[in-house]
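Q: My labmate handed me this sequence with no annotations at all. I'd like to see what the chain might look like in three dimensions before we decide whether it's worth expressing. Could you predict it?
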Amino acid sequence: MVAPYYISITGFTLKSIIYLPKFMSYSIPAEKQAAAAEGNLFTETTYIDGILHTLTAWKDKQSMRKYMLSGAHAKALKVSREIGEYSYGTKTYGYEAETIPNWKEARQIWEEKGTLHGKPIPTKAPTCKTTQHSKILFGGNLYVKILVACSAWFLLTKMKI
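A: Here is what I predict for the chain of 161 residues:
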């Protein structure tokens, strides 16, 4: 018997906070595409420990792959090497499941079973510039928060989201 869900868990680490506006200009349309894609049952994003995550549930793996290789997501994949840090924080995992995991479960599964795209998996999590920038971004630097908020507002209004 086939499980009712195909679950996809991703993590993405930016090279630097300066790539956040460009990342958002690709990720927002890709997330909207996922939510509207045929076969998509659930789409959610979050930020944990300097890593941007997505958690999606699909009726089957074929639906997920059709989404992944088309439209806004395909465009995002093309720029991922330019803006992303191919390290411990950039990996994916997909599997069939009876239920959709919560974020705690998803993060644990991703940590244990996720695989890296592009390069071999490092033996340990690096301490990277992105994580340091991310702590500043979400940890209290008002100037950076204002910059990010203005960038987000600009992108959202420009894209009429």
